[in-house]
């Protein structure tokens, strides 16, 4: 059975005819492409008003336009998540779009900057901490006035992590530490804002998902920072990168035998954001196809 049919059954059963996220305003960082863009589309399909954010403003606008043309509601906001001014503007735009309310934050923006420990520079280290820990913290802090409220409406924070932050990974000491830090931030938010305000905060930790970060490095993928730095992304073919196409051989250490798709990853974020997870708080949800269990 397809994802859309399964979710339709769930909606009918639980009486959410207007969508699982109807009327909620969601900020999704790094949603101009990949998992973030798929999450934005799924959220919009479920009735959310989506704030599409990306360092590349055109990509953010393009995703928002696609959502609006499909009958959803979205705005695109260019935002460098390492800029305090940009984060403040993102929160302001989201609140205006939501008529003074923000319900969901998905801290998805991020990338890898790999090197073995003795070749990791201070800039590589500091950038990973800034992108994956400091930026989510500042966005959550900036949204505090919209989350620390008692209006009976749901408030949900989802921080995206990785199995590198759970198990560690050779060549990713900076990324592994940053992604481990995300889980600590999530638990602190759950304990602070859960009791009085009913805010749910959870982490979704992805395993091998087909994105530009797991594509072959030889394909030339890169991230360009606001200061002009260009960072090559991907995994060298000799270190296990797979082609993003059908017909790959089964992957022995993944019980499902294959990597996940961006849509499958986004679907897990939707599930955690939805009322189906209303009593799940402070947890790390592993989305790995069974890898590392």
Q: How much beta, percentage-wise?
A: 15-25%
Give the distance, in angstroms, between the N- and C-terminal Cα atoms.
Answer: 26 Å
CATH top-level class: Alpha Beta
Could you say what the CATH topology is called? Rossmann fold
Class computed from helices, strands and strand pairing:
alpha/beta
Going by CATH, the architecture would be: 3-Layer(aba) Sandwich
Radius of gyration: 18 Å
Q: Count of DSSP helices? A: 9
Catalytic activity: a (3R)-hydroxyacyl-[ACP] + NADP(+) = a 3-oxoacyl-[ACP] + NADPH + H(+)
Keywords: NADP
Protein name: 3-oxoacyl-[acyl-carrier-protein] reductase
Region (Disordered): 237-256
Keyphrases for this structure?
293 residues; alpha/beta; Rossmann fold; seven-stranded parallel β-sheet; two-stranded antiparallel ribbon; 9 strands; 40% helix; globular
Task: Give the structure's gist in a few sentences.
The chain has helices at residues 3-14, 34-45, 57-69, 84-97, 122-142, 144-147, 164-167, 173-197, 262-273; strands at residues 25-28, 49-54, 73-78, 104-107, 156-162, 200-206, 222-224, 230-232, 284-287. Helix 4 (84-97) runs parallel beside helix 5 (122-142). It has nine helices and nine strands.
């Amino acid at each position: 059975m397809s994802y859309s049919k399964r979710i339709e059954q769930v909606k009918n059963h639980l009486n959410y005819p207007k969508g699982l996220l109807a009327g909620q305003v969601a900020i999704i960082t790094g949603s101009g492409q990949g998992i973030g863009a798929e999450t934005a589309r799924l959220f919009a399909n479920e009735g959310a008003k989506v704030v599409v954010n990306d360092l590349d403003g055109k990509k953010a606008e393009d995703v928002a336009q696609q959502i609006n043309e499909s009958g959803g509601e979205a705005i695109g906001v260019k935002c460098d998540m390492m800029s305090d001014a940009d984060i403040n503007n993102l929160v302001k735009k989201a609140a205006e779009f939501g008529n003074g309310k923000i319900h969901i934050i998905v801290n998805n923006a991020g990338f890898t900057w790999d090197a073995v420990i003795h070749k990791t520079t201070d800039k590589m280290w500091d950038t990973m901490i800034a992108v994956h820990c400091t930026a989510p913290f500042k966005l959550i802090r900036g949204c505090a006035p919209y989350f620390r409220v008692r209006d009976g409406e749901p408030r949900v924070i989802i921080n995206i992590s990785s199995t590198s932050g759970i198990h560690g990974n050779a060549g990713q000491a900076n990324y592994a530490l940053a992604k481990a830090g995300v889980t600590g931030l999530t638990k602190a938010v759950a304990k602070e804002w859960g009791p009085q305000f009913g805010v749910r905060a959870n982490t979704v930790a992805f395993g091998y998902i087909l994105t530009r970060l797991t594509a072959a490095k030889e394909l030339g993928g890169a991230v360009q920072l606001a200061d002009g730095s260009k960072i090559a992304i991907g995994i060298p073919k000799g270190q296990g990168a797979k082609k993003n196409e059908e017909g790959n051989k089964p992957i022995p250490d993944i019980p499902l035998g294959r990597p996940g798709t961006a849509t499958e990853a986004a679907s897990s974020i939707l599930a955690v954001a939805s009322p189906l997870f209303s009593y799940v708080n402070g947890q790390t949800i592993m989305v790995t196809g069974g890898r590392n269990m």
